[in-house]
């Protein structure tokens, strides 16, 4: 019991520092790619391979998320948006759910002490970096689009090193606490294996 209390206490400071991405000057080409990625407003479509996969994933994730987002319709809208934006950015949707759990506790209007906003705790300077000053970081899809694009950007910079990319995302590069907490949330709360359908 004492160990769990100490572990919980060690996690508390992380909440205060959630989403403190640091501004780094970007080359014009990188800035253009980020702007294009954020601005691409293709009509929403399913990011699932088939309807059975969608039903299975949404049902399972909805069950796990029910206490945090009680409204069923809002929960399914949230999960569809997470799956779409994560898949679009080449990220594991369950990783993104783990990151959101750590960053904001699934609170849409969360604001960190550093000023980061929304589910994925996006720092406001990103709106200026991509040249979309009217974007609202509390809007569900906008927040997820920015957050997933930023994490993808950091993964590209770090050549696929998730540990370092997560450190950049949180503004704590080189410190193990944040990447480890996200991995634990991802693996313990949101890990998901596709069910294999029995062949007839």
Automatic annotation (TrEMBL):
Residues 1-18 form the signal peptide. It holds the Pfam family SLT. Gene3D superfamilies: 1.10.530.10. Residues 84-174 form the Transglycosylase SLT domain. It comes from the Bacteria. InterPro entries: Lysozyme-like_dom_sf, Transglycosylase_SLT_dom_1. Keywords: Signal. This is Lytic transglycosylase domain-containing protein. It comes from Candidatus Accumulibacter proximus.
């Amino acid at each position: 019991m004492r160990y769990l209390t100490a572990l919980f206490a060690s996690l508390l400071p992380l909440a205060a520092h959630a989403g403190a991405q640091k501004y780094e000057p970007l080359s014009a080409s990188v800035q253009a790619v980020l702007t294009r990625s954020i601005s691409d407003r293709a009509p929403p479509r399913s990011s699932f391979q088939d309807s059975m996969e969608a039903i299975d994933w949404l049902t399972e994730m909805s069950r796990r998320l029910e206490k945090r987002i009680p409204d069923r319709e809002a929960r399914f809208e949230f999960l569809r948006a997470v799956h779409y934006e994560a898949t679009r950015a080449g990220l594991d949707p369950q990783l993104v759910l783990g990151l959101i759990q750590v960053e904001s506790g699934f609170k849409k209007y969360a604001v960190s002490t550093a000023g980061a906003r929304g589910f994925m705790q996006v720092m406001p300077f990103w709106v200026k970096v991509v040249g979309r000053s009217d974007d609202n970081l509390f809007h569900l899809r906008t927040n997820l689009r920015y957050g997933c694009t930023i994490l993808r950007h950091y993964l590209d910079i770090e050549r696929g090193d998730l540990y370092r990319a997560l450190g950049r995302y949180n503004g704590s590069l080189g410190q193990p606490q944040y990447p480890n907490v996200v991995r634990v949330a991802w693996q313990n709360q949101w890990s998901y294996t596709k069910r294999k359908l029995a062949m007839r």
